[in-house]
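A reminder from the course coordinator: this example appears on the midterm review sheet, so study it carefully.

Given structure:
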């Protein structure tokens, strides 16, 4: 069998293992949906009148781009960093490396897992937003095309960085702290839970270094009215810079993976 066929088999196996881990499913799959529902319920009255109501932006629509961006990060970066670190620590990677399976098939399985779960999560999130809270979804092909490339770049970048980041963990016991903590911090400073315009300028500059801010901004350009781009740091959606930053992180992640990825835990051969 060739690497692609084995990669598909790995994807199926990865999905089965993923859905057996209830905690992982909750935090990376259900968590953004629960957060969107909670924010839409708590802040609904604040969006019932004024400029946002005139623009057709209710609370659910306001928080939707951030929840989509957070979902991409959770299903790619966080889930992959945690799972790869655990598989390295318990010897799974070492055993896989000793089999005839091409190494690329393992990574194809991880990519297939992230792509499948991210799409499923987004579909459910959009369904909840539309049916449960009456969110106006984009109607133009250009908007959905923008969503497509931001989503794909975000998933690819998050997956590669998650694999690279997993090497920082010394064991499966420590990986949770070094992955979840920075993930939460980035969500709070990248326009996921708060309006990005409300953050201090210095914190905006810090957030702009990392991919999540650009994924969230790209999603805002899809789901917000076009005239809302005036509220961004540069006064535009900056699609070109979004692609550039995400592409740079993707390339950097690939280089780091190639140089640092280990099939065995530290101190073993």
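Designed residues:
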């Amino acid at each position: 069998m060739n690497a692609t066929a084995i990669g598909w088999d790995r994807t199926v196996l990865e999905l089965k293992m993923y859905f057996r881990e209830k905690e992982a499913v909750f935090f990376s799959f259900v968590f953004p949906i629960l957060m969107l529902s909670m924010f839409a319920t708590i802040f609904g009255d604040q969006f019932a009148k004024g400029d946002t109501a005139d623009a057709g932006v209710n609370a659910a629509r306001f928080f939707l781009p951030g929840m989509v961006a957070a979902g991409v990060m959770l299903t790619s970066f966080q889930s992959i960093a945690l799972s790869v670190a655990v598989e390295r620590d318990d010897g799974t990677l070492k055993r896989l490396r000793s089999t005839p399976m091409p190494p690329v098939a393992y990574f194809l399985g991880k990519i297939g897992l992230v792509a499948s779960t991210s799409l499923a999560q987004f579909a459910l999130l959009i369904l909840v937003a539309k049916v449960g809270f009456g969110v106006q979804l984009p109607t133009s092909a250009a908007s959905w095309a923008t969503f497509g490339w931001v989503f794909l770049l975000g998933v690819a970048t998050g997956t590669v960085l998650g694999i690279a980041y997993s090497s920082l963990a010394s064991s499966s016991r420590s990986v949770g702290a070094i992955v979840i903590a920075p993930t939460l911090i980035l969500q709070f400073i990248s326009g996921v839970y708060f309006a990005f315009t409300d953050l201090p300028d210095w914190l905006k500059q810090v957030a702009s270094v990392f991919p999540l801010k650009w994924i969230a901004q790209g999603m805002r350009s899809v789901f917000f009215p076009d005239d809302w781009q005036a509220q961004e740091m540069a006064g535009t959606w900056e699609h070109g810079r979004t692609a550039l930053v995400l592409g740079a992180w993707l390339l950097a992640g690939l280089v780091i993976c190639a140089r640092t990825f280990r099939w065995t835990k530290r101190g073993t051969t």
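The chain has eleven helices and no strands. Residues 59-89 form the longest helix (31 residues).
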